[in-house]
Amino acid sequence: MILVAKTYWGTTPFWFRRPPEGGQSTSLALRTDDLRQIRALWWTRTGAPAPRTGVVVMHPRVDFTHHYAVPRLVEAGFGVLAANSRHVNDDTMCEHEELVLDLAACVKWLRKKAGIERVVLLGNSGGGSLAGYYQAQASLAPGDRLDRSPGGSPTRFAAAEMTPADALVLVAAHRGQGHVLLRSIDAAVVDEADAFASDPALDVYDERNGFREPPSPSAYAPDFVARVRAAQVERVRRIDARARELLAEHASAAEESERPGFADRPFAERQRVLRRRAYEAVMVVHRTMANPAYTDPRVDADPQGPPREYGSLLSERPDLMNMAALGFARTCTPRAWLSTWSGLSSRADLVENARRVEVPTLVVHAGRDREVYFDRDVAPVFEACAAADKRLVRIEGARHYFEPDFGQKEAPDVERLMDVVVPWLRERLP
Q1: Is 258 helix (H, G, I), strand (E, B) or coil?
Q2: Backbone angles phi, psi at 42, to 5 degrees
Q3: Chosen CATH of 6-177+347-428 out of 3.40.50.620, 3.40.50.2000, 3.40.50.1820, 3.30.43.10
Q4: Domain spans, the chain
Q5: DSSP secondary-structure letter at 277?
Q6: What is the distance between the alpha carbons of residues 417 and 423, in angstroms, rounded to a whole number?
Q7: What is the pTM of this model?
Q8: Sign of CA dihedral 196, 202, 203, 209
Q9: Which of 129, 247, 313, 355 has the fewest Cβ atoms surrounding its Cβ within 10 A?
Q10: Which helix (H) or strand (E) holds 81?
Q11: CA neighbours within 13 Å on the CB side: how many for 99?
């Protein structure tokens, strides 16, 4: 039984399908201000003058080193720093505050090592909320930046070298990973330790609530959707509380181990306390793919677009994928949950951070996106953006990663997207 969406079969939809014509890449290891190392590819055009403008592409956990935007950007004369975060392919321990430092290392390398005069952040999907978070913090004086993550970790933002980018491009960007989960987490779960403990009155995959056998669209009553949305918030609030309990237990053990006279206590007592201090909890979050909009196209429908396709970004059978290991936030530490996946606690909220974005900003919406919704994500971000020079473009018929239909070798929607992005950048950053 194959549950993964067809666009992922035999390919990676966010990778380019052809290398840049005349392009070359240099493998880099970049050091962050908190002494971590991340890997990146620096894409440029062979034999061409050194680029004056550099574009950074990065996602919180997805490998964007061969991102589909690279070929056209390189061929247009831009340099592209396609970087992996420190949590690529596994975001169990991912705090967005760490990712901001990863992005800072990219911007610093471009300005100081590559001689780049102007930097563009291209935020695709979850990379959009990351780019917005970086830009908002980099625009502040060091002493005004956030000093702690939602889980209490030091951000190191004040001491980090963070300069604002000169332009922002948001492509199929949602409001933030926490907000994605806030509307997709299964409201019916009643016991976080039991994946099958469920309240049928809140189950979006129960026929009694309007669910229909796939691929027939479901038909949920508005009051049912409202109850699900409220219960999703309550479940996230409960998980937030549990995450903070675990962090408080860790802090209590740390405090006890640092009290005067601790070294004089018997070894067994000290070991017990130190083991509690060393313990790193990993939470398992069951059933995180239960957005009513996945199966009922009327929920969060785009008033300007055609009916949304059935399913989610990851699967045409979200009712089954909801039980699989592959999904949003399925395993995470308490700090990662609060920083990245909690729609109530995460500060990687693109709407809030866009209020501090004053550089030229391009927002592009993919008309057939099954995970990013115009009224919930795109319009609020665009309206919140403080830039005097901002533009909103819709690419009708395009999917989340602008990938083609299953079996097609070319990606025409990528070309349509880049026909917008490249001229927009050239007009502002010649």
Answers
A1: coil
A2: -100, 110
A3: 3.40.50.1820
A4: 6-177+347-428, 180-332
A5: H
A6: 11
A7: 0.96
A8: positive
A9: 355
A10: strand 79-83
A11: 32
